């Protein structure tokens, strides 16, 4: 039964990959007529010069083995709040610089890991995970009803939370 579910999961991933590859091909054709644009990367616009991981599993592995904290950004392409935060994040030079010290992952889908939605599944939400693979539930934004939500006006709080995640790393490990 386990093998069967792995096989169907694998086939699903292959199907999704093929569909995404087809879409990417269509988009590329359109974009060449417009101004030359950087190829869309795993950054999804959150910082094209940053190195992003593809999956949660890869991100956890890299965090553990590089001893860098992991920053996970949950967002949706059609969510105006996510888009506004993405723009603020991508344009904030200090955040982009600090983000280089993290393993980065942005997700446009929910994971099955309940640790990544400690207070619910909403977007945008940003969580930090230390290299011991502990979700830092203590690093929160300013909203009591959505602890890990940030808005563009909270960008300096996000920056200080990123600094906090790095500081905790040095003091606790």
Automatic annotation (TrEMBL):
Transmembrane segments: none annotated. Keywords: Endoplasmic reticulum, Secreted, Signal. It is found in: Endoplasmic reticulum; Secreted. Gene3D superfamilies: Glutaredoxin (3.40.30.10). Residues 1-21 form the signal peptide. SUPFAM superfamilies: Thioredoxin-like. InterPro entries: AGR/TXD (IPR051099), Thioredoxin-like_sf (IPR036249). One of its GO terms (cellular component) is extracellular region. GO terms for molecular function: dystroglycan binding. Belongs to the AGR family. PANTHER family: ANTERIOR GRADIENT PROTEIN 2 HOMOLOG, ANTERIOR GRADIENT PROTEIN-RELATED. This is AGR2 protein. It comes from Thinocorus orbignyianus. The gene is Agr2.
């Amino acid at each position: 039964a386990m093998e069967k579910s792995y096989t169907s999961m694998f086939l699903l991933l292959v199907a999704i990959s093929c569909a995404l590859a087809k879409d990417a091909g269509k988009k590329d054709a359109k974009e060449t007529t417009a101004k030359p644009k950087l190829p869309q990367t795993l950054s999804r616009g959150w910082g094209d010069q940053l190195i992003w991981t593809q999956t949660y599993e890869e991100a956890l592995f890299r965090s553990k083995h590089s001893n860098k904290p992991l920053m996970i950004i949950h967002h949706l392409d059609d969510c105006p709040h996510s888009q506004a935060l993405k723009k603020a994040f991508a344009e904030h030079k200090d955040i982009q610089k600090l983000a280089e010290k993290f393993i980065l992952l942005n997700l446009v889908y929910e994971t099955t890991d309940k640790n990544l939605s400690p207070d619910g599944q909403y977007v945008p939400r940003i969580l930090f995970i230390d290299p011991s693979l502990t979700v830092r539930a203590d690093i929160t934004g300013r909203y009591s009803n959505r602890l890990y939500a940030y808005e563009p006006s909270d960008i300096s709080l996000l920056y200080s939370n990123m600094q906090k995640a790095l500081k905790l790393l040095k003091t606790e490990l």
